[in-house]
Specification:
Blueprint: H1 7-16, E1 19-25, H2 30-45, E2 48-55, H3 64-68, E3 71-76, H4 82-92, E4 99-106, E5 122-127, E6 141-145, E7 157-161, E8 170-180, E9 192-193, H5 209-225, E10 234-238, E11 242-244, E12 259-262, E13 275-278, H6 282-286, H7 288-294, H8 296-305, E14 311-312, H9 313-323, E15 330-333, E16 337-341, E17 353-355, E18 360-362, H10 365-381, H11 385-392
Parallel strand pairs: 1-2, 1-10, 2-3, 9-14, 12-15
Antiparallel strand pairs: 4-8, 5-7, 6-7, 6-8, 10-13, 11-16, 16-18, 17-18
Helix pairs in contact: 7-8
């Protein structure tokens, strides 16, 4: 016999947990999804709604998502999201150091035959002990061999390189390279689905990954500017075109120290479509663009050295979590929703497959099948929805 849950105790805790549900990017398919979303997400979690979306002059401010939202972070959509990236870059880079510190990286390796020499584009600056602030340099790279460098002929020496290349970085212990940050457009050279939405005559990416990266930054900025991270306990970042086969799991079943994602649509990384977060981990989940700008060389090295012929948003989400040292916090819960599109509905990427029985397009068949699987399992189980989630979000997955 299954042990039941003390619902009175649980409900008391639920009221104490302040949850903010965030629709990211755009509101669409409200005529298909809003009632389902309101019932299975907002009401189920007793949550407030926030929109962090792009708007055009034709945006329908009478749509039910907009009317329900307590917070509205709106960005006027440009024709080219490169303009949005430049806006973000100007804010992120403001009053930040000129150089990025790369420890145990030697940009000078193999470029000088002997120490204490200068060439046309390499300058020898002398002893490390005389260097107080590298920000005064004008070189593209400043290389410092520390006192612990293995070769006595090179240790404690400082060199500067002008007109450097991005591919001249070698791993070597006890060397520090201070390198000027890359402009974010350098990442467009890495193929092929990361920065969709940004126009480029040579390195155009497909899809909408760039748009979604921008809105993650815009959301983080808006939450910080409005002090909402301190005012809520949990955050659910999702999309408006989901239909939920089952009520959303209560956030109290999910360890607040963890980053929770549904268990499907990986594409070599982690799905970008839905996440359950807390105030302790929302920043390392959202700060992809911040890191691409402030840690540009570090990320460029990682992304070009990874065994990928092309990158997508799911993969860069995983990389960013790894770089933020929170990858071990990622846990999964049942994928109980699927994205839809109406007959005349808009889409940035997947058109979907029309379902005659439903009267609309199912955008991702694998997503629909996974959500149907969990719906069928629950309906055959004979247990309550709380007991169902307690089994699937088990104690082992709920710990770190």
């Amino acid at each position: 016999m299954r042990k039941g849950i003390n619902n009175n105790k649980l409900n008391k805790y639920i009221i104490m947990t302040k949850t903010l549900v965030i629709i990211l990017g755009e509101t669409r398919a409200s005529e298909l999804t809003f009632d389902n979303f309101k019932k299975n997400v907002i009401d189920e979690l007793q949550a407030d709604l926030c929109l962090c979306i792009g708007v055009k002059p034709t945006y329908d401010y009478d749509n039910p998502f907009y009317k329900l939202a307590k917070y509205k972070f709106l960005y006027n959509e440009p024709d080219d999201f490169g303009d949005a990236f430049e806006y973000a870059n100007s804010i992120i880079s403001q009053n930040k150091p000129k150089y990025e510190c790369l420890r145990n990286i030697n940009a000078l390796y193999g470029k000088l035959q002997n120490p204490q020499q200068s060439t046309k584009n390499i300058t020898y600056y002398g002893n490390n002990e005389n260097i107080i602030n590298v920000e005064h340099f004008t070189d593209d790279e400043v290389i410092i061999h520390t006192k612990d460098f293995y070769n006595d002929l090179w240790k404690n020496q400082v060199y500067g390189i002008k007109n450097s290349e991005n591919n001249n970085l070698v791993n070597q212990q006890n060397v520090i390279t201070y390198k000027k940050k890359l402009h974010w457009r350098e990442f467009l050279k890495i193929k092929d689905q990361i920065f969709g939405g940004i126009k480029d005559p040579v390195n155009q990416h497909t899809g909408s990954g760039g748009i979604l990266i921008f809105f993650r930054w815009f959301l983080l900025k808006s939450l910080v500017d409005n002090d909402l991270i301190n005012n809520y306990d949990r955050f659910v970042i999702t999309r408006s075109d989901f239909i939920y086969q089952l009520p959303h799991p209560k956030v109290e079943y999910m360890n607040e120290n963890c980053i929770w994602i549904p268990d499907c649509e990986y594409y070599g990384g982690y799905t970008d479509r839905h996440a359950v977060l807390s105030k302790t981990n929302i920043e390392p989940y959202l700060n992809i663009l911040n890191n691409l700008i402030l840690k540009s060389n570090e990320y460029f090295i990682k992304m070009t050295n990874k065994n990928h012929t092309w990158w997508n948003l799911e993969q860069i989400i995983l990389l960013n979590l790894e770089q933020n040292n929170v990858l071990s916090l990622v846990k999964e819960f049942p994928y109980i929703m699927y994205a839809v599109r109406n007959i005349n509905g808009t889409t940035r990427w997947e058109e979907g497959t029309y379902a005659n029985s439903l009267g609309y397009y199912i955008k991702y068949t694998t997503e629909y099948n996974k959500s149907m699987y969990y719906k069928n399992v629950f309906e055959k189980s004979g247990i309550t929805i709380d007991e169902f989630y307690k089994e699937y979000i088990c104690i082992k997955k709920n710990t770190i």
